[in-house]
Specification:
CATH topology of the largest domain: Fumarase C, Chain A, domain 2
Number of strands: 6
Strand content: under 5%
Number of domains: 3
Radius of gyration: 31 Å
CATH architecture of the largest domain: Up-down Bundle
CATH class of the largest domain: Mainly Alpha
Largest sheet: 2 strands, antiparallel
Strand order of the largest sheet: 1-2
Bound molecules: arginine
CATH superfamily of the largest domain: Fumarase/aspartase (Central domain)
Length: 458
Amino acid sequence: MQLWKGRFQKALSKTTNDFNSSISFDSRMYKEDIEGSIAHSKMLGECGIISKDEAEKIGEGLKSILNDIESGKLQIDMEAEDIHTFIEGELTARLGDTGKRLHTARSRNDQVAVDIKLYLKKQVDEITALVEALLLVICTKAEQYSETIMPGYTHLQRAQPITFGHHLLAYGEMLLRDLGRLSDCKKRMDVMPLGCGALAGTTYPIDRKITAELLDFEGITENSLDGVSDRDYCIELASALSIVMVHLSRFSEEIILWCSHEFKFIELDDAFSTGSSIMPQKKNPDIAELVRGKSGRVFGDLMGLLTVMKGIPLAYNKDMQEDKEAIFDAIDTVKMCLTAFTPMLDTMKVLPQNMRKAAAGGFINATDCADYLVKKGLPFRDAYKATGEIVALCIEKDLTLETLPIEEYKKICELFDEGVYEAIGLEKCAYERKSQGGPCPDNVKANVERIRTILENK
Ligand code: ARG
């Protein structure tokens, strides 16, 4: 059944109906559609546009539809054009003429916009909670491994020793920014479009403040054309979610590396890994790989939304129906990824000895060796050069900075003495990096507390 049959003489062809219909994906907004309609009918009643009695009957009718959908008594008709049509049709079937009054001073264009916003605001809250849960797991692990030495990398080459807690908290900072983006995006989304009508508002004496208050919106859209054709909030959310996925994907990549025999920094719990059907020895980090892979879907959703919107003249055009599958897919994917990733991280076994061994191997303390000479008065550039020569000598003699005899050190620079061995100790190198934002255990612990406090005070 279409709502707009009046001026048509022929029935819609099945292919057109199927092509045009959005019910297969917008039916998930049934609750928001009903909430929006209840608020709208109440406002119509308050403003005397329909009688209070009719408004009440409409409200009751809509609530009974909601109950029946949720209890399974009422099936959503997948032949309907969209969820708005289905619910209005059902209301009219139940209430007769009174049901037909619901759509006074409203269009599906402002209706769909309010439905999406109501739906997305809830989703932002759910995703925020999932990001916070991951952040708390990161904090627990960072605290536990605040003193664990590991190699820090640049170019995936061992660079300088850091603590594992510090490495984990880098992801903590990323997720904190994600939380900021999510809440910021929700703020801009929080303006109510009902009352924009099809594009040009309405001549009925509506009171949009009443509807906004009933639906718990912070504000009201100020331009009717923009109100019905704005989808920035979908794009912004898809963008914030894409950045979440960038972070999860980078983290996943590291987890995959750390699980390999080449690194062996961690081992994933059996419950969060899978095997191979042919190679009995395999234990694969499939969750991390899938998260890395699924990031592509979310970026695709963002690109899809940008492309759909970029050429649309004001105001509503049917192209915009394409918004929903993209943003819903982005939401579903991010929720699924976070739900799988967090317990995987929580249950991973950390292998500090292997991390330390990797840190001890490759002249990772060369900067500290140079800094040792600087502290003895040599300009950094000269100290850097002398240390470079020492590294070359070690390579030639198949020794490390720890095992090169002091006489050899002295041959390259007189300022060296036995104290150098203490200065290049891995713990010393990592723990003395106390500059703000550095990897020393106290900084890690302080940042864990800082993040926990931020989350507690939200
Ligand atoms: N299913 C439509 C959508 O998702 C609802 C709005 C329809 N408006 C219209 N003028 N055809 O965008």
